[in-house]
Specification:
Layout lengths: L4 E8 L2 H13 L5 E14 L2 E15 H14 L8 E4 L5 H10 L13
Antiparallel strand pairs: 1-3, 1-4, 2-3
């Protein structure tokens, strides 16, 4: 695999926010796909107390080259002070699918000019 791929995960407290993050990332071609999973039950430490909450997880499919921009978008648009942003390397996968991920996340300056009719 010439390109490096990652799945990036975040979670939020509402389906609407999860959907908005997914749409922003895909619209800006920072992810080829974003899947919403939930609700999930989360238990975590926050400000010295164990908390429990219902959250929605978003799993983004992208390339390592787009990770920093995706992480910035999540940080800027997320409602949490410290949003989860975890990138898990894709060690292997369908070559056709990964080629599609690379194609869909290509930066705009690398896209060919549209042909005139």
């Amino acid at each position: 695999m010439a390109d490096a791929y990652v799945q990036v995960t975040t979670s939020t407290d509402s389906r609407a926010e999860a959907a908005a993050l997914a749409k922003s990332a895909v619209s800006e071609r920072l992810a080829a796909c974003a899947q919403l999973v939930g609700p999930v039950a989360s238990t975590y430490w926050w400000e010295g107390v164990i908390e429990a909450a219902e959250e929605w997880m978003v799993v983004f499919k992208t390339t390592v080259d787009r990770f920093d921009e995706l992480a910035s978008l999540i940080t800027e648009e997320h409602s949490y002070d410290t949003p989860e942003i975890i990138a898990t390397p894709v060690v292997a996968g369908s070559m056709d699918y990964l080629a599609w991920v690379a194609e869909q996340t290509a930066s705009p300056e690398s896209e060919p000019e549209p042909e005139e009719a």
